[in-house]
Design goal:
Layout lengths: L5 H19 L29 H15 L2 H17 L4 H13 L3 H13 L11
Length: 131
Amino acid sequence: PVVNDDAKREEWRTVLKLLMSAIDGVYDPTGEDDHDIMNAKFEAAFEGWQFDVRPFVEHAAVYAACKCGDYESLSIARAICSRGGTLRPNSPEEWWRYSIVLGLLGDDVGSEDALAASHTFGGGQGTRLDT
């Protein structure tokens, strides 16, 4: 569910920015664009990359974007889900999450297709109730 309180929505935007910095390696928590974003990079490697932490971080980023509910945040979530569907095309979790994001963006047909793909790949078989 989308957060209706503006202060809470701003907190979720900050969470989304921080999670995106973990994904793309660019740290910009303020969003003020007061530095050259092409030259801002982490100096130290992220410690979690010895195992595949990408799905966890992406799941959290999509959740934060859905909580924000604005078009820009949901577009970021759609891009993450699109990449996830490409990297893990047989994952019911990826398609289920994609269906939620597309639904929030108003793409009812795409949302239904993504949900159908999730079911095709085994989603909803006792692990979660899809409503």
